[in-house]
Amino acid sequence: MEIVRKTNSCVKAVSRPDGRKVLLRGNEALAEAAVQAGCRFYAGYPVTPQNEIPEYLAKRMPQSGGVFIQAESELAAINMVYGAAATGARAMTSSSSLGISLMQEAISYMAGAELPAVIANVQRGGPGLGNISGSQADYFQAVKGGGHGDYKLLVYAPFSLQEIWELAMLSFDKADEYRNPVMVLMDGILGQMMEPIVKTPYQKPKLPAKDWALTGCKGRKPNVLKSLYLGEGELEQRNWLLQEKYNRMKEKEVLCQTCYAEDAEVMVVAFGIAARIALSAIEVLRAEGRKVGLFRPVTLFPFPEKELHSMAKGVKKFLTFELNAGQMVEDVRLAVCGLEDVLFYGRPGGSIVSPEEFTEKLRGLF
């Protein structure tokens, strides 16, 4: 992995002298990375702008000895993933925004039953049917537990195709490590854009044995996977165990990057494609001598609150930039904890902010 917990350099694209670059679409990069990471079950339903994922896997899954199913709905797809994950298979689904909404009940069931799976959300404009443009309006849904109950997903937010490739592979490992669903939160721009990447080989780490899986119980006691606990105090105890797991994620799994942070007076906080737009603007202003930097969460849950809080003493203003009406900004304000002003700039409904527009917005802060 090229991503580290914290670095003071921002790398737009990863270049390795020993690797040959290939040109891929974002959705294709995610799909092929899943195959390389050992995903052998995919169920999904077509919805723009993620359709290249099921289209690609319809061919690659049979080639790799896996199973591809175009389900009759998103509800059917996520429940098929539930069943495949229960057998210990590496399983995945993908959709866009409204389709992920339909999956929320089953995602909550999977979190309650502690089943590992990867869910890709290539976001589009909303609410409702909205449009098919790229958006970041599903932040709350992803990081706050979009379904019912006190559950959390580990959520990755790539900002380049190289990161899509590497975070997709990491997602399967972390799903197995924590026995928890993991979400890769992208958007329509990242899903559809093309850029060269290095197809780094997958290296599977040592992971816990899946002795909990439903593989047939000949010679052993049956395994039971469930999220229904009716005994007195039983569900509360179960919930505290889940919270302990989420707290371990907070301690071990935080990923973020900083760029031009050493002397920044204004710090832009952005994730995904918004961070790409922001970085272009920041480099223009840096050339003008303006002290502006970028803080980019790579994990949205766990959110890098400690890392962001530690920067508050040296920064005069924070500007949270999102392609929505203001969601991550709430977590930024909690992390900064009133030490400095936290401003917001964004556009909802699938509207895209140009680097030039954002450059002018930043100039107004000096």
Tell me what the structure shows.
The structure is a single chain. With 366 residues, the protein is α/β, with parallel strands linked by helices. It folds into two domains: 21-210 and 238-252, 3-Layer(aba) Sandwich (Rossmann fold); 257-363, Rossmann fold (3-Layer(aba) Sandwich). Helices cover 37% and strands 19% of the residues. A seven-stranded mixed beta sheet has the order 3-2-4-5-7-6-12, with helices on both faces. Helix 1 runs parallel beside helix 2. The longest helix has 19 residues, at 234-252. Residues 1-17 have low confidence and may be disordered.
Number of domains: 2
CATH-defined fold name of the largest domain? Rossmann fold
Helix content estimate? 25-40%
Beta-strand percentage?
15-25%
- Rounded Rg: 20 Å
Full CATH superfamily name of the largest domain: Thiamin diphosphate (ThDP)-binding fold, Pyr/PP domains
Elements, N to C (H/E): EHEHEHEHHEHEHEHEHEEHEEHEHEH
Poorly predicted sequence stretches spanning 5 or more consecutive residues: 1-17
Number of strands: 14
- Enumerate how many helices there are, as a single number: 13
Shape-level CATH architecture of the largest domain: 3-Layer(aba) Sandwich
Class of secondary structure makeup: alpha/beta
Mean residue pLDDT: 94
CATH class of the largest domain: Alpha Beta
Largest sheet: 7 strands, mixed
User: Judging from the principal axes of the Cα atoms, what is the shape?
Assistant: globular
Side by side, the strands of the main sheet go 3-2-4-5-7-6-12
Q: How far apart, in Å, are the first and last alpha carbons?
A: 36 Å
